[in-house]
Amino acid sequence: MDYTNSPLVAYTRLSPNHSGQRTHAIDRISPHCVVGQCTVETLGEIFAPTSKKASSNYGIGKDGRVGMYVEEANRSWCTSSNANDQRAVTIECASDTFHPYAMTDAVYASLIELCADICRRNGKTKLLWLGDKDTTLAYEPKEGEMVLTVHRWFANKSCPGDWLYARLPDLAVRVTAALAPVVRLDNTPSAWAKEAVDWAVGAGIMAGGSGGDLMLHSPVTREQLCVFLHRYRELYGKM
Ligand SMILES: [Zn+2]
Question: Looking at the domain assignment, is residue 145 inside a domain?
Answer without folding.
Answer: yes
